[in-house]
Amino acid sequence: MIGPPCLEQRNSRIVLSMAIIAVAGRKGGVGKSTIAGNLVAEFVSMGRSVMALDADPQHSLATWAEQGDGVLSRCVERVTDTRTLRAGARAAEKHVDLVVIDTPPGSPDTTYQAAMAADLMLLPCGPSPLDLFALKEALSLSLKARAERRSKKPRMRFVPSRVLLSSNLSRGLASSLKDMGKKVLPAIGQRVVVAESVASGLTVSEYAPESPAHEEFRKLAKAVQKLL
Questions:
Q1: For the purposes of burial, counting CB atoms within 10 Å of the CB of 175, is it exposed (0-12), middle (13-18) or buried (19 or more)?
Q2: Percentage helix, strand, coil, to 5, in the chain?
Q3: Fewer Cβ close by (within 10 Å): the C or N end of the chain?
Q4: Count of structural domains, the chain
Q5: Domain CATH for 50
Q6: Residue 26: strand, helix, or coil
Q7: pLDDT per residue as tens digits for the range 50-104
Q8: What is the pTM of this model?
Q9: Is residue 99 part of a domain?
Q10: How far is residue 59's CA from residue 104's CA, in Å, rounded to a whole number?
């Protein structure tokens, strides 16, 4: 069942092509849900109609949305049967400008289904070497889906996530990602305000609009928009 999309400022909406964006990774704790939810809010602020599909069995994104009365409370839907994810994303795309899919870690079948539907795969990666190992698996699934589709889609971009500028590993993350052969989008830092916004049921743009964290998500959303 397709519910009402998130939509604000419809009269000033930028007219762009419809697209499906999947946020994916094979390891937990790299900020997939955080990135997905905050991108939804940024796109809505740009005047886009957006629907978020929470395909993680833990439904972290949907639980976050239910904690408050913010943007996410109006546009997140739980996906209870991931076998229907591809069809559900395509159906949702008929009603909104953008569909954002939040995928679970440790579920290659769901990641593959998302990649089969997506126009763009965002692959977050933390600074740990273990994060980089898992990223290679997510990239491999995305490439497999592209080959199956016999298409240039999904496009793939890396997102440095939970970055600490004081850490040597964090400072070298962007370089390590570039060495893997895909372009790297603006990084998202590890900041307390991000966790606080989730606890309040709001996105960073709603909870702390003047914060450095919001500026990071705004830059990421603008970079993604240029790819659509």
A1: exposed
A2: 45, 15, 35
A3: N
A4: 1
A5: 3.40.50.300
A6: coil
A7: 999 999 999 999 999 999 999 999 999 999 998 899 999 999 989 999 999 999 9
A8: 0.90
A9: yes
A10: 9
